[in-house]
Amino acid sequence: MKALSQPCLAHHILQLDQLREILGLSETDAEYEISLEATPLYQSTALAALKDVLATVKTPEDAWSIMESRRDELLLKKESTKSLLSSMVMQALGGPLEETNKFAKVNNEAATYDHMLRTLEAKEVLISILAKSGWDEFDNFDETFCNPWDKQSANGFLSSDERIKLYKMFLSRSIRKSDGGKISDEMYARIMDVKGLLGITDQQAEIESRAAFGPELQKVLNTAMLEIVEDYTPELAENMKRRANEVVESYRLTQDFLREVGATFYAKAVALVSEKAPGGIPSKELSQALEALRELYNLEMTDCYSYHMEHFGSIYKKSVLEAMGSTGVIRPEFRESLEKLKGRLGVSEEACQALFLEAIQDKMVPMVKWIGSEMERTMLTQKQLAQRRGKDMGEDVFQSGKGADGVLGLGSEVNIMSDIMELVDFYNENDVAKEEERTRTVEKQVEEGGETKLVAVEETYTETVYPVTALAAGNMDQEMAELLYRQFTVGGFTTQGEQGARYEASRETFGGILGLTKEKMDDIKDNIGSTVYDNFISNAMKTKGSMDQQDMMFLANIQTKLGLSPEQGEKMMTQSQKKILSEEIDAIMDDPSPQRVKAFREKCNSMGMDLIADVGISKPRLVRMFEVEVIPGLKTGEINAEQTEIFQEIQESLGIELEECEAMFENVLAQLSKNAFELIKGELLRGREENCVDLIKELVRYADFTEGDLGLEVEEAVGNQVLNIYESVDLGGQSADEIEHNKELLRAAMKLS
């Protein structure tokens, strides 16, 4: 088709613009109509030009010139032809690719290879044409036109298996046609072009490469392993390394693949060395052979620890046990040898530590079992052993008179202290326990804006870790571990001098070896402390009535020996005192007397113990204690309206509020008055007036507290009779005023005007 001249083209454009205006179309609508009509015409020209280039009839430059001229003639925007051009490129490339796949389906490797080369040539031609467009989107040809997941792409019609098969056949044929089986740079570039054309992933290409060339690499690496282990020399290692590198470079294999294949042969090498090594320990030459293989296979020592552990781990553990000897403690000179052995065996530091701890556990197990069996044999009867979980080993000897023997009712007859110290020394001298830094969140007070606030902060602390414990090893149950720790603590507490101090210093370590938590150890110490405090304080108070300075010093010593804080010691003493005083008041109130109640409250006051808050006496019992002391005094007249000091002293001593105490007193007074008046009426009814005199005097004393009002219900005749009896009584020793005052009180009590 002959191209239009520029004046002619301009004339047509002018005519179209005039027509657009006449028809009232927008520029967008006009462009759409032009594109609709012109696109098939442009596509026909472009496809013909592309086919001519692929047929080598035209050059890419000529084809692009024809396509651009035709686009101008058809008044198509350059941008609008981008998608058209993409579609045509995919079609142009899809044809040769489809033809190539036909030969692959019938396993014609030679024809597949040849047609794939032609497809690559077509790809290069198309790239040349697209380069003329200047569009950036076409810079990455494979990504734009060869996306296998896009059905419209050049290779979209191929299945995954078909693409992989095409790639494998091209790769295999390339090696056959190569010079000496080596992949040249040119060949490698061509293979990569096919990889991109077929949309093969890097991972899949690696798989195919390994499948194709892996056997050759395995052969070289296996030979290297056998030769170097058999008779190592540096020259041999260097020669074998050069061969391996040639294979890797010739077939463009990755270092990752070399390491993967090499690791399998290295594992075999370690097994062979283990068989050849005298005593299972590699000689210097065999160690050098393994080192040379690691370098050849491009392996780090960290990559090989598992193989060394599998074959040499038992050797290291055996050496540790031998170094312990009969004493169980590794001497310094043996430690140096073990350090050297680690390097010779090639076992990691972490694995060696784990093996060391296994050896420690093996050595520790019989020691722990012996201590546990001795504890059971010497301390428990058969019945106690059967019921051990319900047995309280800290019975109170002062209460029961039997049970735990020894000092303060704790029991300490079990002679296992030396065995326990042997275990502790074994643990310490072998440096089994480790100090580790930990972090925790704590709340601290800070000043901010003139206010004190609590903020959460991270702090570092050191904790002793016991990696091997009796509980974790399954050598004993929780109950026995707690029993042993308790017994050791008691032994340290009851032993004096340097040996006692040694026991105390080892207490926390022994608890850690057993596997007890700090909280559990504190609970056991608190239980022991409570038992000691209870028994000692009870004994002191029974024998001396109170605790003196010497007793307090003894308790302070106990506190130090048990590692208790001052706050814990004070709390235990308070709890013990409360327990003892509670038991004492229980016994008193079973058969109360004013003297016993008074002595008890005075004892509590001297000890600074509040009867309610500290001793735990209930309000009803406190009222009863008040009544026990007050009622006899009121009856005898020891407590009267003129002498209220005793009443006040009792009120303050019992810790009762004044208003509450007054109400209690009024109730007592009302009850006593009622009881006395009922007795008077009974005696009058029986005609025994002489028996009423003391009762009437008692009523007068009660009335003196209330100015005569006792709240009694009195018949006038009875009241007059009572008053007459009182007036007839000889009241010598009292003044006339006193006598008259008492009569007025009695009249008021009897409700006589």
Describe this protein with a few key phrases:
mainly alpha, 753 residues, 4 domains, elongated, 70% helix, single chain, two-stranded antiparallel sheet
In total, the number of strands is 2
Specify Rg, calculated over alpha carbons: 54 Å
- The residue-averaged pLDDT reads 81
Strand percentage lies at under 5%
Secondary-structure content class: mainly alpha
Count of discrete structural domains: 4
Helical fraction = over 70%
The dominant shape is: elongated
Cross-sheet strand order for the largest sheet: 1-2
**Largest sheet entry:** 2 strands, antiparallel
What distance separates the N and C termini? 152 Å
| Number of discrete helical segments | 31
Low-confidence stretches: 1-5, 389-414
Blueprint (SSEs and pairs):
Blueprint: H1 6-23, H2 27-54, H3 60-73, H4 82-105, H5 109-131, H6 141-145, H7 160-176, H8 185-198, H9 202-230, H10 234-250, H11 255-276, H12 284-296, H13 301-324, H14 332-345, H15 349-379, H16 382-386, H17 397-400, H18 417-429, E1 434-448, E2 451-465, H19 470-473, H20 478-494, H21 497-514, H22 518-544, H23 549-561, H24 566-590, H25 594-607, H26 619-636, H27 645-654, H28 658-685, H29 693-706, H30 716-728, H31 736-749
Antiparallel strand pairs: 1-2
Helix pairs in contact: 2-3, 2-4, 3-5, 4-5, 4-7, 5-7, 7-8, 7-9, 9-10, 9-11, 9-12, 10-12, 11-12, 11-13, 13-14, 13-15, 15-18, 18-21, 20-21, 20-22, 22-23, 22-24, 24-25, 25-26, 26-27, 26-28, 28-29, 29-31
Task: Summarize this structure briefly.
The protein is mainly alpha-helical and 753 residues long. The protein is built from 31 helices and two strands.
